[in-house]
Amino acid sequence: MKKFGLIGGTSWNSTVDYYALINKLINDHHGDNTNPPLRVVSLNQKAIHDLQRSDDWDAIADIAGAAALELQGIGVEGIALCSNTQHKVFDPLQASLSVPVLHIADAIAANLDALGFETVGLIGTRFTMTEDFIKGRLQDRYQVKTVVPTDAEQGDIQDLVYKELSVGVFSDSTRAIFLQVIESLSAKGAQAVILGCTEFPILLRGADCPVPLIDTVACHCEAITRFILDEERPAHGVDRRA
Hints:
The protein is of the alpha/beta class. It has helices at residues 12-30, 45-53, 57-73, 90-95, 104-115, 126-130, 135-142, 151-163, 172-187, 200-204, 216-229; strands at residues 4-8, 38-42, 78-81, 119-124, 145-147, 192-196, 213-215.
């Protein structure tokens, strides 16, 4: 198996999900308790959020780059950012490395293709919903059309991500707000909705939704597992709502 590096911490809740799911997928593949050679560097979430608020993405790229070089220095053969929003610095990060960084949008696209969806809703941080580092890659490389919430809904989601979800608060009232947004996206023609923030699958696990939910953590972990195992098998679509 290939040694693999995870850049986590934003947030630690979803990083735990990454670690657990990759191990489970490797266990399932081998049929026993074989564990993958994972290495994790955990970033300071508060520092990253402060830099996001001040729009200092160069500093965020430097922090992520230092973490990636640390992982590359101990011999990992691939790296993943355990966050959708952090993919805003994907290009400079990949340019600084000799090992591949597995882009979360490529993993999402593989699952969308397996499930046959061409028009999907996208919810995430405001950065993810308004900028092109996820939705632009989906459109340009895979011809996947995305629809996003209204400006007001985006503001509500952004506030809830920073005030609740990223600090581990997952309430029924917040879940109800998200389900209403998902219903609105379905009415706009979304065949499914991408949970474009790694805390959203935790919030919506077990929820009764009008359309399928695309769990980006599960998609990414499946792609990471295939990389670790050096397999080319196609994505089959992962549903962790239960």
